[in-house]
Design goal:
With 116 residues, the protein is mainly alpha-helical. It has a single domain (2-113), classed as Non-ribosomal Peptide Synthetase Peptidyl Carrier Protein, Chain A (Orthogonal Bundle). The protein is built from four helices and two strands. A two-stranded antiparallel ribbon has the order 1-2. α2 (14-47) packs across α4. It starts with a helix and ends with a helix.
Length: 116
C-alpha cells in the first residue's frame, strides 16, 4: 500500500488533479471552520473584538450595529470579513506549502533510493 501511495505521489495526471481539487475543497472548509470557529473567537476573546462585524456603511441609510443588518440597509465595506478571509487564505497557503514541501522531500528521497 505504501508503495502504491509513493507511485501515486510521484506521477501526475488528470485523475490525480481531480482528486487534489476535491480534497482541497474539503480541506478549505476545514480551514474555514478553524479560522471562523477557533482562531477568530480566540483573538476576539483576547482583544474583546469580533472582526466579523467590523464594517463601514457606505451610505447614510446604514445605521445597524451588526454586519447582517447593515447589508440589508445598504452598501457596506465589510473589512472585518476581509480580515477573516485573508487570515483563512494565509493559513491555507501555509498548510499547502508544508504539504508540497513534504511531497518534494519524499520525491527527492525516492530518487536517491532508486537503483542506478
Amino acid at each position: 500500500m505504501l508503495k502504491e501511495f509513493q507511485e501515486f505521489i510521484s506521477k501526475g495526471n488528470v485523475m490525480d488533479l481531480a482528486v487534489g481539487v476535491i480534497i482541497g475543497a474539503a480541506f478549505g472548509k476545514i480551514v474555514d471552520s478553524l479560522v471562523n470557529d477557533i482562531i477568530m473567537p480566540f483573538i476576539g476573546a483576547l482583544g474583546g473584538v469580533d472582526f466579523s462585524n467590523y464594517f463601514i456603511g457606505l451610505s447614510h441609510n446604514v445605521t445597524a450595529t451588526n454586519l447582517a443588518d447593515a447589508r440589508k440597509q445598504g452598501a457596506v465595506f465589510a473589512y472585518g470579513n476581509f480580515i477573516t478571509v485573508a487570515l483563512n487564505f494565509l493559513i491555507l497557503a501555509f498548510i499547502i506549502f508544508l504539504m508540497v514541501k513534504a511531497v518534494n522531500n519524499l520525491r527527492k528521497r525516492l530518487e536517491r533510493e532508486k537503483p542506478a
